[in-house]
Amino acid sequence: MANEKILIVEDEADILELLRYNLNREGYHVREAATGEAALDLIRKDVPDLVLLDLMLPKIDGLEVCRQVRGNGENKALPIIMLTAKGEEADIVTGLELGADDYVTKPFSPRVLLARIRAVLRRQSMEIPGDTESLQLHNLAIHPGRHEVLVDGEQVTLTRTEFQVLHYLARRPGWVFTRYQIVDAVHGDDYAVTERSVDVQIVGLRKKLGTAGKYIETVRGVGYRFGAV
Q: What is the SS3 assignment for 225?
């Protein structure tokens, strides 16, 4: 049985009850917040192991909650899964760019959601796969041990998944990887994901890396590679 603490941020009573029931049955310790303000207050008092965050909240919405959590250095690695009825691509992209680890659209299958939760928690507890040596490529420096990325000497803040994708590509400059190879390397073979999810991570990476973003190259019809040095 699991024993991690999960904070549910949801203002719809029926969905909250569904989430509470399924999480309690799996052994998770559940806390609840119906507003963004209450969620931020609970996180400040006692950081959970994972947050299930609805986007459509009164006053402070889920995106702003995510932004504030990621802006706090102590909580920037706190796993966040977005729950949203907003299936538009723009909302999903915005949430992931703000640092959410995953998203699930309503209506959702409790079994799928639980699988996503287990996958995110498992990634959180795992070391970055592969070697731990620092990499210096073009104007980009990657330090796996410190989970740090520098572009022209300036630190760039990446989510855990973004860092793992970048590190996976950069360890083999010039090699081409399919989207599903990237997914398997970063998330494991059992992770339920679409090709679009990988594309979203790449878009976010390129934007955050600035001038170094151009080294993540698209190979049309195949996948992605880090430009050969």
A: strand
